[in-house]
């Protein structure tokens, strides 16, 4: 009979073996995690990571692409299929989400790239009409030749068929000012297998409630039956109109109108016809000359003033939607961060001591672009590096004034700075 020590060793071995098998299965799932697009294309997982705000977990983002992709930058080609998938791990305001996307798109893309697509960007942000809860899912699928499809909890909400739109969204994660440095690294697939497996586990456990957002699609549906009813009513009005000419047929047997023809015949035997014939011969020549003169005058009434009016009216209507405060704010933040980074220098003392770290500063500006306050909300662990960031901001100031499109008297933005030894 086995001793108690033997039993304990056996049970411990079983636990270790179970943990090993479980971790192995998760690793296999991580390698096999795929996404299916509506056209049947299968995509492989490239990277997955956690988006945080003030160290609070907000959502897990996953990036999928063709198995042939060896570099994330290859996904920026419009001819390459891709999916950006988001699953929320906590509640999040729909207004904050809309602002997040618009500002980040303007922060990570040049103005000449996002401005022509302002209408599409605003339309995308307006899809989020209710608060997001844990488990909610947003899928952004780009299919070459079809466009960029936006799904909320498995329901297709819209398709944007504009070149470059998918890249604006992709750069939110992969641009120069990503949500966090760690998130960008995760999305690029640079995490260790254990960290990646942990994110995949959290992602797969949260299953979205299918159809939770479908009520937001209700308004456009009643428009279809109204159109069909009008189309059916139209032929009923045309039917009586075709019956009217049948009543006019019995009026044809009225031969009484032949009398004036007889009168003309009676006038012909008179002695005056030869005189009239000669006059008629002279008149047609004069009439022909008179008729040719007004012909060149007829093109005069071809005036085109209404066309000029039509060209002047549409521009003011189209200009209104192209102004969005969140996009303007994002573009302003992009300029501010870039102007500060121009003054980045690795402190000699920190370099000698091989100090590395990430620093995030929150800066408050007043209307004219002067600095009101600088607060370090994320420190590097090195006082030398922390002070270097504050010095960079002071050197870059004063900044350009707050854009006139923004009404606030103060403007707050964050500056992420990384010090890494090559």
TrEMBL record:
Cellular component per GO, a single term: plasma membrane
InterPro entries (alphabetical): Chalcone_isomerase, TonB-dependent_transducer, TonB/TolA_C, TonB_C
Residues in TonB C-terminal domain copies: 331-422
Biased composition (Basic and acidic residues): 241-260, 290-307
Main location: membrane
Gene3D superfamilies per record: 3.30.1150.10
Topology within the bilayer: Single-pass membrane protein
Biological process per Gene Ontology, one example term: protein transport
One Pfam family per UniProt: TonB_C
Disordered, as annotated region: 231-317
The keyword Nuclease is assigned to this record: no
Biased composition (Low complexity): 231-240, 261-274
Coiled coil (UniProt feature): none
Compartments, as annotated in UniProt: Cell inner membrane
Sorted UniProt keywords: Cell inner membrane, Cell membrane, Membrane, Protein transport, Transmembrane, Transmembrane helix, Transport
Family, per entry: Belongs to the TonB family.
PANTHER family in UniProt: PROTEIN TONB-RELATED
Protein's UniProt name: TonB family protein
Organism in which the protein naturally occurs: Aliikangiella marina
């Amino acid at each position: 009979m086995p001793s108690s020590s033997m039993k304990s060793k056996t049970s411990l071995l079983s636990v270790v073996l179970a943990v090993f098998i479980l971790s192995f299965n998760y690793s296999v799932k991580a390698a096999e995690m795929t996404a299916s697009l509506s056209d049947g294309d299968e995509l492989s997982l490239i990277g997955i990571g956690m988006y945080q705000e003030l160290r609070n977990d907000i959502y897990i983002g996953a990036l999928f692409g063709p198995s042939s992709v060896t570099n994330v930058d290859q996904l920026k080609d419009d001819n390459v299929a891709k999916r950006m998938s988001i699953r929320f791990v906590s509640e999040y305001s729909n207004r904050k989400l809309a602002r997040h996307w618009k500002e980040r798109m303007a922060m990570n893309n040049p103005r000449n790239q996002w401005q022509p697509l302002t209408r599409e960007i605003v339309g995308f942000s307006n899809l989020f009409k209710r608060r997001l809860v844990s488990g909610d899912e947003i899928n952004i699928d780009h299919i070459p030749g079809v466009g960029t499809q936006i799904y909320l909890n498995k329901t297709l909400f819209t398709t944007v068929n504009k070149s470059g739109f998918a890249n604006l969204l992709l750069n939110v994660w992969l641009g120069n000012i990503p949500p966090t440095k760690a998130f960008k690294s995760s999305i690029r697939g640079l995490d260790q297998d254990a960290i990646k497996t942990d994110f995949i586990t959290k992602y797969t456990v949260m299953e979205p409630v299918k159809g939770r957002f479908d009520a937001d699609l209700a308004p456009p549906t009643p428009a279809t039956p109204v159109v069909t009813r009008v189309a059916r009513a139209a032929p009923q009005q045309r039917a009586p109109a075709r019956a009217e000419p049948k009543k006019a047929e019995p009026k044809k047997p009225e031969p009484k109108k032949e009398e004036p023809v007889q009168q003309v015949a009676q006038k012909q035997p008179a002695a005056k016809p030869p005189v009239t014939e000669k006059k008629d011969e002279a008149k047609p020549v004069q009439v022909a000359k008179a008729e040719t003169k007004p012909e060149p005058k007829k093109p005069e009434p071809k005036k085109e003033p209404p066309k000029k009016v039509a060209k002047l009216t549409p521009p003011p209507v189209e200009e209104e939607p192209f102004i969005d405060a969140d996009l303007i704010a994002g573009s302003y933040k992009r300029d501010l961060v870039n102007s500060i980074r121009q003054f980045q220098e690795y402190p000699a003392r920190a370099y000698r001591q091989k100090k590395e770290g990430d620093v995030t500063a929150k800066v408050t500006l007043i209307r004219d672009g002067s600095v009101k306050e600088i607060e370090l909300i994320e420190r590097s662990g090195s006082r030398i590096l922390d002070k270097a960031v504050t010095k960079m901001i002071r050197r870059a100031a004063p900044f350009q004034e707050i854009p006139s499109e923004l009404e606030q008297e103060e403007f707050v933005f964050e500056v992420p700075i990384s010090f890494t030894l090559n």
